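Thread: "does anyone have the structure for this chain?"

Original post by V.I.:
We have the sequence but no experimental structure in hand. Need at least a predicted one for the grant figures.
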Amino acid sequence: MCAHMTARAPCAGVVVGDPFALLPELAAEPKLGPEARLSMRDRFDVSAVWLERRDSNPGFLAAGEETIRTGGGFLEVVGYPQGHDGRWTVTAIYNYVESDDAAAKRNSAGLALSWLLRRNVRLVVEGDGDFEAEGWNASVGTVAAF
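Reply from O.Q.:
Generated one for you, C-alpha cells below.
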C-alpha cells in the first residue's frame, strides 16, 4: 500500500495478499500485516513492515507437509544530511523473522553510507551484523545505472 505513495507522504496500511493466487497447487496462505512510512521534514524517512503468513506446503512437495508459520518485518531509517537532493545518504535497517522453519529465522541489522558521485553513479560503504549467527560483513562498492 505505501509503496505506491510519494516518498514524502505519511502512510499506514495493511498488506494483504496471496502471492500464489494463480498457482493454488502450491497451497500458500495469504500474508497479512501492517506497514507504515513517515517522512520527517526533508531529513529522514522511516519505514516499517510486519508480515504474518502460514504455508501448508512450504517445500512444494507433492505429498504435502505440515503447516509452517512465519512472521517478521523490518524497520528502516534513511537519513539525508543535505536533504533529499543532497549527495549523502545514511541508511539503517533492522530485520527480524521468527519461523517454525529454523532456516528462515533472521535477526540482523545493517548500516550504509552512500555518496552520489554522478547522477547515475553512487559509492557505497556498508556493514551488517547477523545476531543469530553472531557474525558481521562489510563491503565497499559502486552502484551504477546505465
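V.I.: this helps a lot. DSSP finds no helices and eight strands in the chain.
O.Q.: and The chain has one domain: 2-144.
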